[in-house]
Design goal:
- The protein is of the alpha+beta class and 466 residues long.
- The chain folds into three domains: 150 residues, no CATH class; 148 residues, Nucleic acid-binding proteins (OB fold (Dihydrolipoamide Acetyltransferase, E2P), Beta Barrel), CATH 2.40.50.140; 152 residues, Beta Barrel (FomD barrel-like fold).
- Helices cover 25% and strands 32% of the residues.
- It contains ten helices and 25 strands.
- A hairpin with a 3-residue loop joins strand 23 and strand 24.
- Helix 1 packs across helix 5.
- 44% of the residues are buried.
Length: 466
Amino acid sequence: MNVRVRGIYSTALTALFEGHDDLRVVQASDAIAERFEADLPLRPAEAGIETTPDRQGVGVVGDAEAVTTVAEVLGDVGLDALVWADPAPRDAVFDGRVTDTLGSGAVVDLGDAEGWLPFGNSDDRIEEGDRLRVQVREPAAPWEFDRPLLDTTLELPGSLARLVRGGSTGRGTGAADVVDLIPADPRDGWAVRWGWLADDAEFDALDAALAARNERAADLDAALADAPDPAEGAPRQVWAGSATRWCWFGRESRFELDDVRGDVVATMPGHHRIKAGAEAASAAVDFVEAICGTEATVEDGDMPFEVVTRQFGPQAGDSLAIDHGKPDGRLVELGEGEVAEWDSSGTVTVRREMSPGGTYDALGTDREAGDVAVTKFKEGRWWYATVYRDADGERKGTYVNVCTPVEIFPDAVRYVDLHVDVVKHGDGSVERVDDDELDQAEAAGNVPADLAEKARSVASAVENAL
């Protein structure tokens, strides 16, 4: 099965796939082709992999069998690599219901997800309560706050060829005017558009790409023919589209990918961890490796935390968000605080002033005016502790969160919560909580068994220490 790879994880993932019996990398960038000194042809891809905009992980889109195979490889990268299926996959067609209109577009209920339809992506005026047929143009990772992008025009994308439904049924338009030289015709009722890669592809590759799009167009046409009017029963899925999965790489997984990449090309310690933090940091890594060459690769070297944070942050006085990932892929922001302390060993202390109202989870004490939360994060640790104090400085309790290894990025601390936690009450008593939630997440497949066992082990160690 052919796979197309793009983004900051490309070299490491290409190396992984090259060692897999059922996967072959195609449509490689010039840099990848040069590094592997291999024939990586311009053939149609059964699955495409793109790094997410925040560089935290990758999205995998394509044929169901290929996507499943790729997802299995990604999930095995490291203990904290987590994979989720998307309820609103790319190309999927839904009959949706407009639940709200906001400025430049509409929120559309798709059933198990919500989508965003810009007004410019519809020829009709859109109002709350409308029911309409839409297609997912760009899916969104579950940890991102963006909704999947929708369109009312139906098309089947591809890096070599794409089809647009209802367009001109002529032979074709686009970057490569070669359609008269290949056997396949675009399916009736669809127009073909050639991608920029088509200029360099062989005729048989273009023919295969168009034939593959035609097959999918036939499937979509059949689904539309059997579907009732959008006004009848929306929201519902009309056509499944392309299989779509998301993989989030935790800190341990990024370092595993460093090791794989290091077997191919010069790779500094913390390569993927630093690149994931900020675009400027990513460029700096490329610069260091280009200048230092093989000297950038240090056996058993540690990520230069002090250098990275001095250059890109955070430092004392900076504002730092707490990005609390959930095992089902969602992201919850626990607010922002000020970095009260920083040290070169990889520890930052964040101070937050708490708003009154309600109680603190598991501690059971009231949130009152003047309360302060002081949280100490250490890069790479499987837990972090928050101490709550009242306006007089008296300790109200300590909450220890068990999570995937903490990553301290310039603007946010990032991890995935593993449910089970340990609390120390104001009276000194210690309690372990939420084991049942971890059990449920493991049973649901959101937390792999080995990761769940690691979380329980960490919780036991923290409980004993307290």
